[in-house]
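user: Here is a favour to ask of a fellow structure person. I have my own habits and do not want them to colour yours. Could you put it straight underneath, so I can go through it closely?

assistant:
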Amino acid sequence: MRSTLARGTLAVTSMVAIAFLVPLALLAGQIAHDRALADARQQATSMIAALAVTEERAVLARAVASTRAGGGERLSLHLPGEAPIGTTRGAISDIRLVESRGHPLVASAPDGLVYLQPTALAPGRTAVIEVWVPSDELRRGVTTARLAIAGLAAVLVIASIALADRLGAQVVSAARELSRAARRLGAHDLSVRVRPAGPTELVEAGRAFNLMADRVVSLVDAERERAADLSHRLRTPLTALRLDADSLPAGELTDRVRESIDALEREVDAIIVSARDSLDARSGALTDLVDVLADRLAFWAVPAEHQGRAWEVGGGTEPVWIPVPRSDVIGAVDSLLGNVFRHTPSGTPFRISVTERELVVEDGGSGIADLPSAVRRGVSGADSTGLGLDIVRRVAGEAGGALHIGRSELLGGARAVMSYLGSRRPSR
């Protein structure tokens, strides 16, 4: 954009400069021409005074020689019936024409012009004063003036281009900042704002962008509050379930049911707290994936034992920090492990491995028949909500990675890989 503005300014200012430069250059030549002829008239006028005093040839010769033009052999005096005094360059026909008509004349001469000035000596007698103006005198100072005009035009063009580039830089800088902010907003960074700058239109666009971003944040926060309200409604059936559990006879099964109800209640509380977190609170969050995985495996180990599932964990000896809130990481891990329990029969083994770049969950079941539909939100081939793998995909995207599903070469069943941009140490 800056180059376009610069080229446009160059074209416009160049045309304007040329429109003024050509007439000024011609005018400079005309001024030099007129100045040289005016000087010639002045030299001729000085001889008129001498002719008014005397017609003696010797006196007139000294008068001719005393003038600047005469000293340079550019002035001559033509007396009627006598030889010229001084050096003459004018044509005889032009001299006779001036003598007969009595009017000054500018005529061509070798290497310049001659100015012929008549003056009456007596009735019927007219002298002609001839001043030769060389070509160099006619062009004296013209080249310098034209170079100065051209230099001034070049300076004006360069200055206008520099000014246009400076103004264009402000416009481009403001437009680029707005573009970067729009891309970041499109990449789910709802905390981004711009500093309105540049022309009035871009300032208004920047303010409108900030208002839009604020509105988006308020809408998202409102939806999260709504999700928290909906999650709170789960407390009613949980309360009824706890009352039913209290009416069961004492025993291991009853204790396990109560523990499950307690765990479910804790999960509902965690969902409500997470749903009410504002976007500002969520920005910059860091979570240790290894710690979350250890916590969730402690929960899933109980149903795995009851169903006779063999399982193992690979890696996870050091913390792995990913830029996602803890509640979201818990949701992703639970979705991956929950799919194993929901979609494979009891006794099916599974394996979890975690590295600095990916979390892998694979099982020994029958695998996923329709891989493209498995990650499509709301689509399920096993009578479920179809949200589990989509939750994992969203969390992986927030962490700078992706979700890949396929078949496990080790166990023969499904294999889900959640990649991310992790690190061994939390960012500061």
Observations:
- The mean pLDDT is 81.
- The longest helix spans residues 2-53.
